[in-house]
Amino acid sequence: MTRFLPIPRALRSAVIVISTALLVLAVAAPAVGTGLGVGLTGQSGAALNPSHPDRYVVKRGDTLWDISAMFLQDAWFWPEIWYVNPQVANPHLIYPGDVLTLVYVDGKPQLRLERSAGSGKLSPRVREEDLPEAIDTIPFEVISAFLSKGAVLTDEELEGLPYILSIRDGHLAGAAGNDVYVRGDVAESDGYSVVHLGETLVDPDDSAVVGYEGIFVGEGTIWRGGDPGTMRLNKTNREALEGDRLVSIEFDIPLNFYPRSPDTETNGSIIHVVDGMTQIGQYQVVVINRGERDGLETGHVLRVMRRGGEVRDLGPSAAGSDSLAKYGRSGGYFGEKVTLPDEEAGTVMIFKTYNRISYALVMEASESIKLLDGVVNPT
Fold first, then answer.
1. What domains does the chain contain, in order, with CATH numbers?
2. Could you give the residue ranges of the DSSP H alpha helices within 116-220?
């Protein structure tokens, strides 16, 4: 079930990162040199960021995506170049205070990690101290932030969801503090988010309905089970209405994955942005019309391509009938409609998939991204 929660702490400046799964996978790769290192090979396609530092101290609030972007032109190439030496005490986690150093071995750049004292290892202490937290895999604040604004519900999710049957005392709408009667599989003390169904999402390729906008209404707790059960609305952002769905606060968004290009060719479109904006920027969540049936998985990275506009060819700007005769009417181009080429606009990462659609987070936005812009393989 999807989770709708308020932001538990201040939103960090960086977003989705390479997960524990990346590092576990990398353990199987051959180590190069000593310490924790990465190597750039001719096959990887990764290139160093021209403004990369030679040394970087990991700070609280960093993410691996941000750190890799300091060293690489394309941050998502990190999994292809990361090799872990088992001598590192805990290769699955990177902590504030760890030092990354760029070195060259046989002419190839590598990143080596120097673990700071006490990072990632608990030992007896004379007095209690705050231990550093490992770098996040997925900052939960970002996910909860987008869920608090609403999500997309598929037909599969809607089937069997509890719903509001009636507002107590004959009210037409409910608000925080009101009780509502609900039908469905609910149990006493369970907490739910209340979701109102908004616009229908249609795949522009075949006009098929692929989901429904889920507008976050509020949260409530079942205090009396049965059929119907009774739920008290604890807080609301808008009026709760009969027919609104109840979504469990539990969620199944994976927290462990690593960025990579899809194995199959992807050519889709952005069909929805969660907060309803038409101009889409960095760290916003979008829905694309490609999913599991198209080979997409969590962690897949896609390039966003801004659709080329359509213009009418009016010929060269030079005045005179000779120009029009030469380049316009006589040439057969005058008045012709021409579609301009698509332009790269950013990068998104898939973090949840369904059969026909997927959630993606905008990791980078070099230009304004719009609805119906394309998404394709990054290489």
1. 20-114 (no CATH), 142-248 (no CATH), 267-307+342-376 (2.40.10)
2. 140-147, 155-158
